[in-house]
Amino acid sequence: MCRMPILDARRAQIKRVGKIEMILNVTNLSLAYGSRIAVDQASMTVAASECVALVGANGAGKSTLLKSIVGIQNSFGGSISFDGRDVTKWTPEAAVRAGVILCPEGRHLFPEMSVRDNLLLGATKLNLSNAQTRAKIKEIEELFPVVNERKNQLAGTLSGGEQQMVALGRALMSQPKLLILDEPSLGLAPLLVERVFEIVLTILETGCSVLIAEQNVQSALGVAHRAYVMEAGKIVKSGDASRLSTDPALLSAFIGVDEI
Ligand code: ATP
After folding, report:
1. Which pLDDT score is estimated for 4?
2. C-beta of 200 in contact with ligand 1 (< 6 A)
3. Is residue 58 exposed (0-12), middle (13-18) or buried (19+ Cβ within 10 Å)?
4. Which of 28, 63, 125, 163 could, after both became Cys, cross-link 78 (CB 3.0–4.6 A)?
5. At 247, which CATH number?
6. Is 37's C-beta closer than 6 angstroms to any atom of ligand 1?
């Protein structure tokens, strides 16, 4: 299996400095759309400074689980705790204030607003001073040069890759403690996919935890410390990402590789 050696080395470095305190605990969480169960007693954890991948096929329930963590979908069973407090019923606004930020599948930028204004939206709930906002924007524009180059352009006129950088930048404007990325590589060319995962590692180096749902299993396991595999609403496998990246059943199911 082809792995990304630079990403692997950087991930190993992050692992050495990582703490083992769990900041997110999802326990036996169940969600449904009407009578259809989309997430079935799922349990997972994310530690401080850790990158956790949630992998699975289309419709496995990944997005539904992520949305429930940020208060967008209500569960009918189980619990979620963040930073030691029960947040099972919290609102998306409370999640943002606590630093649990979802960068949604499909980016969801405001196409008729400029790149800069889309970024600023990420900071609206933080009550930052003008100077703090300017400093934050500068930080994001340094991380994503294209965001700086295109700051006055309407977001809807950017390419898919550029839009993904703006979506990541907007999420970072919210000063996440836990950044949740839903399919960040969807629809991107291979070089941009690699860039997105490099950025994930840069984010991890700041101490932020990352939970990443991906159908691009190979890339996700290339940056994650641990991973959970979801099938038909259930977590069916979990463990060390390096170990899972050589799991024959996983390779065959999601990567189309029959032999390692
Ligand atoms: P994808 O990567 O394709 O988004 P996923 O693993 O994120 O897949 P979900 O989007 O969570 O999966 O969907 C889980 C199940 O719930 C699927 O069967 C899907 O059709 C269904 N579902 C998702 N959203 C809704 C909705 N708003 N109303 C009804 N059913 C839904």
Report:
1. 46
2. no
3. exposed
4. 28
5. 3.40.50.300
6. no
